Amino acid sequence: MTTIETLHCATHCVLGAIIATVIVFALSLELFGKRLWSEFIGDYLAAAMVGLAFRYFTEDGTSGRRAWAAIRRFLRGDLLSVSVFEFALLGWLALTELLVFHETLYPSSPVFWLMVQIGSIIGFFAAWRPTLWLIRRGAKEELLGTPQ
After folding, report:
1. Distance CA 136, CA 2 (A)
2. Which of 7, 15, 23, 90 is nearest to 49 (CA)?
């Protein structure tokens, strides 16, 4: 169960990274003179938006109540895992870019995507414990077949 839920979190984060990377590089966005910071903010926000979208489309009800229920379930059951996963992934990307390569890695390079894959594996293992804690706390009750 923990593996499935951690992979669910990883899906949000990896899709968010792909979406944000394309947008940041296509628009040449920079923050404080570096592309790295805008990519980090974009990755995190995109991961959260993908997670909210996943929750929204699995909720019952009308649009207003459906949206609030999705937000509530995301905040309760996914935000911690997504945040830990993203922190680990983005920390890895920052270390590799700033300490190893000493230059901006571009999405046209296979090395960039290899670093994202390695960071995603690190993020998965980092998010494992928080996900397990959320399951034990009851924030992931839908997996057990009981409604929240």
Report:
1. 10
2. 15
Give the C-alpha separation, 146 to 148, whole Å.
7
DSSP code at position 105: -
Say if residue 88 is exposed, middle or buried (CB neighbours under 10 Å; 0-12, 13-18, 19+). buried
Cβ neighbour number for residue 131 with a 10 Å cutoff: 30
d(CA 41, CA 138) in angstroms, rounded, equals 29
Closest alpha carbon to 105 in 121, 90, 93? 93
Question: Each residue of 43-94: pLDDT tens digit?
Answer: 999 999 999 998 888 877 777 788 888 888 888 888 999 999 999 999 999 9
Residue with tokens 């229920």: 69
What pLDDT digit, counting tens, does each position of 115-144 carry?
999 999 999 999 999 999 988 888 776 544
Token output for 5: 């839920």
